[in-house]
């Protein structure tokens, strides 16, 4: 923690309790004053609000229930219609099949068709609106009960108002020996207007024609609406609540003696009311507030009395309906008549007592807060000193552990060049004693000795640079930093057959390079320790890239990952899953401390991934640094 943050925390410890006490006591005094002064008024308002909300919620719930019911009926009406006409078409198909089976051996084709026509011609359903028709493979209308003049005519090229030659579709269905739903416009004999018709027809194979039926959707929809209105008329709630329905044209639908297509206008039914009908429409279509308030006026020879009325309304745009319910706001008065009127009798004295008590309480709390702040401040300073001492010790332990590993690395890296030097020197000595030493062998041996000595010197420089106590920030390229890190521990990785897979962008950053190398070594050593005992191909993946002005360093292995319950503890000091003689538990803790000191972040998670067509699982460490 830097000094600036420490000073801020100390100021909070010293002054926050005082500020908090003054603030809370001021709020308390103000609250007591307002509460005593306006208790009666607040009680009355609470009663009014409670009554208003109770009634508002009641009419809202009732309207929403009615609205949901209508939506359900509306959304399912066409589906039910389709199911109905399909069922009827199947019934007609079954009737025709029975007739054919009965007469196929005793009558010819034309005679059987005539019997089927006579039978289906008289059948009606859906309150007389539904009937059946027959069309042959040439588009000839064999049966149309409501248009006898059309029977026998060919409609193959007929097109409806939208230019749809639906008879061709029927013939195609016949040729494919299938069945289907269809929609087209056909003249409604009731209104003598072209209307949308939903049809279903099915191929009748024995006589190679189609039996179909349908319903004019407008007629069916009107019938559904009548049933809905009848149902909504039965809904009653509260003292005299009911659901009302108005069209956008002002037609009042659920007057007792009126239904759909009523000529009574809402405006005429409420001629004595001051209501803006357009305002009600706007409220019904609102997505924020569907409540609409207006004044209702009752007049007779002696009394001219006005009351406020509140309605909750919702628009059903597909049917051009407004569904609503209402209540009278003035009913509140009957709920609050008995409210107590005397509340301020000792108000001034109470305020004085409150102020005196508050001053005494403030002084007492300030004294306590002063001593508590001092006590917390001392504890904080002592804890800070202990934490700094402990952290320094951990840094020293971590550094010593790293130094031990580095010395081991030096020993491994020196073994081979020392062997080369010894072998070359011994070879020259033996040949010299035997008198067979040649200039060529001498030159080759000295070159090997010089090369090995240079390698030993370079190794010393690498390790000396790593332990250099440079605390100044510097610019360095992350590619070089990764290379230095791997050079320092490459022997331990190579001897354990651990492969490094790198994908590194060439990014330059400004930071402490040696500290970052220390953190990377700790992570790589941790991965190495987990991979040592694995009997499959062992990998460590290093990905480095720049994203949104930040450097991401991602290191993952295929060692199987960290136990789920240990993920949250992995950066804790002295936490380790290794044997006591294999790990101290401070490596990853110090790694986190180093990254935090570099103003970065580090996290760990278990990941599953594929590499070389093999599926692996391992731990993934992510370091984020500002570029």
TrEMBL record:
Main EC class the enzyme belongs to: transferase
SUPFAM superfamilies xref list: ATPase domain of HSP90 chaperone/DNA topoisomerase II/histidine kinase (SSF55874), Homodimeric domain of signal transducing histidine kinase (SSF47384)
Domain Histidine kinase as annotated: residue spans: 409-627
Signal peptide residue numbers: none
Family annotation (InterPro entries): Double_Cache_2, HATPase_C_sf, HATPase_dom, His_kinase_dom, HisK_dim/P_dom, HisK_dim/P_sf, sCache_2, Sig_transdc_His_kin-like_C
Membrane topology: Multi-pass membrane protein
Keywords: ATP-binding, Cell membrane, Kinase, Membrane, Nucleotide-binding, Phosphoprotein, Transferase, Transmembrane, Transmembrane helix, Two-component regulatory system
UniProt-annotated location(s): Cell membrane
Keyword Membrane appears in the UniProt entry: yes
Top-level lineage group: Bacteria
Chain ranges passing through the membrane: 12-34, 355-372
Known catalytic reactions: ATP + protein L-histidine = ADP + protein N-phospho-L-histidine
Any one Pfam family match given in the protein's UniProt record, by short name: dCache_2
Enzyme Commission code: 2.7.13.3
Statement: the UniProt record of this protein carries the keyword Transmembrane helix: yes
Main subcellular location: membrane
Entry protein name: histidine kinase
Native organism: Aliarcobacter cibarius
Lineage of origin: Bacteria, Pseudomonadati, Campylobacterota, Epsilonproteobacteria, Campylobacterales
């Amino acid at each position: 923690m830097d000094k600036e943050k420490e000073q801020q925390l100390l100021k909070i410890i010293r002054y926050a309790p005082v500020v908090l006490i003054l603030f809370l006591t001021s709020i308390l005094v103000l609250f007591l004053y307002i509460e005593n002064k306006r208790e009666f008024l607040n009680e009355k308002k609470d009663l009014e609000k409670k009554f208003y909300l109770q009634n508002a919620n009641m009419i809202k719930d009732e309207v929403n229930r009615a609205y949901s019911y209508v939506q359900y009926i509306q959304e399912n009406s066409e589906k039910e219609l389709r199911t109905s006409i399909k069922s009827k078409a199947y019934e007609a198909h079954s009737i025709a099949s029975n007739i054919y089976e009965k007469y196929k051996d005793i009558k010819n084709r034309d005679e059987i068709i005539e019997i089927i026509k006579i039978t289906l011609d008289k059948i009606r359903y859906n309150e007389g609106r539904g009937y059946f028709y027959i069309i042959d493979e040439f588009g000839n209308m064999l049966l149309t009960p409501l248009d006898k003049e059309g029977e026998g005519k060919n409609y193959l090229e007929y097109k409806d108002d939208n230019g749809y030659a639906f008879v061709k579709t029927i013939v195609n269905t016949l040729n494919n020996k299938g069945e289907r739903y269809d929609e087209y416009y056909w003249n409604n004999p009731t209104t003598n207007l072209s209307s949308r018709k939903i049809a279903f027809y099915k191929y009748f194979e024995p006589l190679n024609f189609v039996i179909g039926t349908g319903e004019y959707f407008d007629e069916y929809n009107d019938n559904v609406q009548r049933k809905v209105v009848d149902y909504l008329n039965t809904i009653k709630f509260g003292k005299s609540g009911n659901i009302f329905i108005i069209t956008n044209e002002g037609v009042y639908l659920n007057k007792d003696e009126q239904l759909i297509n009523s000529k009574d206008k809402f405006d005429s039914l409420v001629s004595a009311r001051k209501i803006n009908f357009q305002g009600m429409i706007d409220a019904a279509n609102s997505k924020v507030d569907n409540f609409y308030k207006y004044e209702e006026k009752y007049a007779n020879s002696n009394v001219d009395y006005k009351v406020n009325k509140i309605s909750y309304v919702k628009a059903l745009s597909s049917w051009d309906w407004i569904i609503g319910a209402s209540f009278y706001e003035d009913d509140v008065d009957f709920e609050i008549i008995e409210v107590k009127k005397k509340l301020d009798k000792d108000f001034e004295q109470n305020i004085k007592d409150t102020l005196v008590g508050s001053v005494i309480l403030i002084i007492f709390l300030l004294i306590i807060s002063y001593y508590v702040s001092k006590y917390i401040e001392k504890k904080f300073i002592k804890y800070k000193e202990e934490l700094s001492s402990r952290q320094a010790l951990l840094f020293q332990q971590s550094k010593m552990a790293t130094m031990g590993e580095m010395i081991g690395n030096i020993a491994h890296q020196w073994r081979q060049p020392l062997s080369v030097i010894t072998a070359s020197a011994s070879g020259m000595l033996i040949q010299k004693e035997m008198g067979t030493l040649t200039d060529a062998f001498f030159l080759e041996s000295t070159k090997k000795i010089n090369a090995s000595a240079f390698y030993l010197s370079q190794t010393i420089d690498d390790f000396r640079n790593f332990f250099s106590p440079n605390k100044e920030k510097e610019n360095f390229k992350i590619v070089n930093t990764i290379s230095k890190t791997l050079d320092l521990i490459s022997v331990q990785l190579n001897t354990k057959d651990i492969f490094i897979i790198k994908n590194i962008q060439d990014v330059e950053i400004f930071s402490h390079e040696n500290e970052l190398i220390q953190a990377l070594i700790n992570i790589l050593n941790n991965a190495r320790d987990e991979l040592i005992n694995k009997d499959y191909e062992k990998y460590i993946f290093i990905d480095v890239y720049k994203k949104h002005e930040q450097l991401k360093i991602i290191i993952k292995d295929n060692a199987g990952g960290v136990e789920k319950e240990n993920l949250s503890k992995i950066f804790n000091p002295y936490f380790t899953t290794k044997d006591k003689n294999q790990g101290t538990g401070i490596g990853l803790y110090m790694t986190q401390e180093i990254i935090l000191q570099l103003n970065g972040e580090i996290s760990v998670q278990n990941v599953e991934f594929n590499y070389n067509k093999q599926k692996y699982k391992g731990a993934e460490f992510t370091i984020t640094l500002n570029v």
